[in-house]
Queue: 2 jobs
Job 1
Amino acid sequence: MTDLARPRHLLPAGASLTPPDQQPDQDPSLAVRNNGGVEPSAAPAPAGRREALLVLGFGGPEGHDDVMPFLENVTRGRGIPRERLEAVAEHYHHFGGVSPINDQNKALVAALEAELAAAGTAMPVYWGNRNWAPYVEDAWRQMAEDGVEHAYVLATSAYASFSGCRQYHEDVARARIALELDPAAPAGPTAEKLPHYFDAPGFVQANAEALATAIAALPADLRDTARLVATAHSIPDAMAAVAGPQGGAYEAELMRAAQLAVDAAAPGRPFDLVWQSRSGPPSVPWLEPDVNDHLRALAEAGEKAVVVFPVGFISDHLEVIWDLDNEAEETAGELGLAFVRAGTAGTHPAFVTTLRELLEERRAGGEPRLGTNCPASCCFVQRPARP
Ligand SMILES: CC1=C(CCC(=O)O)c2cc3nc(cc4[nH]c(cc5[nH]c(cc1n2)c(C)c5CCC(=O)O)c(CCC(=O)O)c4C)C(CCC(=O)O)=C3C
Ligand SMILES: [Fe+2]
């Protein structure tokens, strides 16, 4: 029997990810290895190599009993107050303790399998998560047993930041180390992460269509004047400051993605980018304004309607269906604001095609782009050590 709540984060002493200023990486070609056991190559994929695509997700609980162990996996060593965990646990219990994220990732896997088959790209698709079963370690072991020699890693986040990019690199590193430490295990695949896809055409198209549909769902007299409000997960200011090689990339990429969606769905209309799902102790500053505070400010300024589009996420997981469809919608109701929430990319065919194209781009070789080949200091946040 698998113990789902077993301790995660198996980095042994001496193999922990060292802060960049302490890393001996004078040679820039070493920087990528320091960023998490990922080995992008500028050369095309060698003919005959046994390759796979790994969808690397966040993970989510499958029932009431999973909720607390899952939340403990997510927040271990992160200094998240107990009251916050208990509040978030209630959100999951409200939906039977089941996050919709696992079914959404399974649907994405199925859509990618169909897309790859239709395009004649013979490659199996695996699925593993950071915080809940099926864990990335298990997927890695399965790939090793199946003889996979190289894995392309598709993280279920389109953006820079520790949580959305670097931590997925670390997940891969952890999975690889776990296998290496097991003398009985077969050698696992080498790996490379696919780049950020916030501006990939199919991701933009999926978000733009969802935004257009949401605008059209408003009563006719509100459609043209409703405020367009993009949302993304808030992160600590300190994390935002170091996102990407020059810093600030999380906000910059989100701004770009939201702009591209608005350009396609409602050209020329202004929009706001605000934040949702803030966590952490109140003493730590996170990106603001919160979407609920923003709705209050809009109502005070005389606005009558809002269209909220969560461009920061790729599927309608719990933070979307609770924090927006429940909380933000309730806030809007109290304020007398008409409220529509746009969908996320999910398994939109254009999105799935764009993901296959990113994969093909990496197979063809060429200079790796951001998210694949990150400098060692990229998105690095000094976190408390995990026990
Ligand atoms: C940037 C970002 C994304 C987007 C990129 C990506 O998608 O990867 C994201 C996605 C998600 N976040 C999720 C859930 C949670 N995030 C938490 C906590 C945190 N998120 C953070 C950031 C992000 N999170 C941060 C800085 C923390 C503080 C703890 C830490 O420093 O690491 C907590 C702990 C409780 C709380 O305090 O909220 C939970 C339960 C789910 C699954 C939802 C489902 O089950 O359907 C998803 C997809
Ligand atoms: Fe989160």
Note: The chain has two domains: 20-60+99-193+349-363, 201-341.
Job 2
Amino acid sequence: MVFFCGPAANKFLFSSESKVVATWWPSTFNKLFHSNSSFTSSTSTGVKTKSVRDVVSGFLKMDVLQNYVSTIDSIAREHIEKEWEPKEGKVVVVEAVKKYTLVLACQLLVGIKDHEHWVGFGERFASVLAGIVSVTIDFPGTTFSKAIKDAQFLRKELVVIIRERKTRLKKEENPTVHDLLSGILLTLDANGKFRTEEDTAGQIMGLLIAGHETASVALTFTIKYLAELPHVYQEVFKEIMEIAKAKGPGELLNWGDIKKMSYTWNVTCEAMRLAPPAQMGFKEALSDFTFAGFTIPKGWKACWSVHSTNKDPNYFPNPEEFDPTRFEGNGPAPYTYVPFGGGQRICLGREYARLELLVFIYNLVKKFEWKKLVPNERITFNPSPSPENGLPICLKPHDTSST
Ligand code: HEM
């Protein structure tokens, strides 16, 4: 389903002149967060010119990510040992999964090892996300004003990391791309110049937000449905134990194991259909067109609703029913299931998200079953769906003698 809004509203919300805090993809950052500090400008030989989008899509391709499955697994294990196991009585899921997705994004994308320091900034990341969809009034006390301050704080912290990395890369004879940050620092922009530290910090901040907030919603709702639907949990458990039984003690997951988790992935897809982490998006009309009897002029933006598209009964019979089998075979028809968007700007992180979600669910289901502590918890939207009390659950470890 789509809604339309005119250019005036677009300019207010999304133009490069408005103070949008972190729509990292449009070039808003460059105007808002201009800095004088720059990595020595150069058009020197041998260094590639690449858009940040190209660097990001290169790093987030499945054939690159496959090499990180065991790293993701060891981070997930460590996280569960630290944040879930000691709290067998009670875990607040939203809080815990946000830590996991943030730690993973910090380490994998930016090479940050000081996890505790960054986990402490969770609230600030959430504030910037809220600012992106807030009314753009920069007045003390508004969501938008708070988001601007938090975004400035986060970028400052990131600049410290970027400077350290630049120093390290300069010392290397043949600097190599270890992660996304190195990839961005080692390529030139369209003008043949290295990107400024401030611009790079803005891009990385946007990626960390895109990379952890959405995935934590998908995980929260998967865990919620697994608690509510024991027969679905049992199927997931069966699939996971098949993989676990074939592994040696302490052996980490690999790409082959991920490919075997098709039912578990269908469950996660169904959770994202019913509770999409991103509720909507905007697309700009490149030429006049007619849709459902409405003529949309060039330049207008169409707001597409993930929520109602994913629940269209023409494509999803009994749309409110949780049914992972919808994704078997060829799955839903193109553009009917859109939690990751669609077309040319489809989410670049969807394969990364698949890995981080599957690896986490594998580790959690292998060790525990769980019960919701608030049976009819209300779902709020800010801007993503979230259980009102953070989904408190009670964990019960499996009897290890039988597994
Ligand atoms: C369950 C997790 C996720 C969901 C539901 C999600 C959803 C979305 C959606 C709806 C869009 C807009 C697509 C469009 O306009 O057609 C998007 C774009 C994007 N996402 Fe994700 N995302 C997720 C995870 C991630 C992760 C983990 C990363 C990075 C590591 C990421 C990076 C991006 C980027 C870079 C874009 C912009 C693509 C472009 O404009 O070309 N996302 N995502």
Note: Residues 25, 53, 56, 60, 207, 210-211, 214-215, 218, 277-278, 281, 339-343, 345-349, 352-353 surround protoporphyrin IX containing FE (CB under 6 Å).
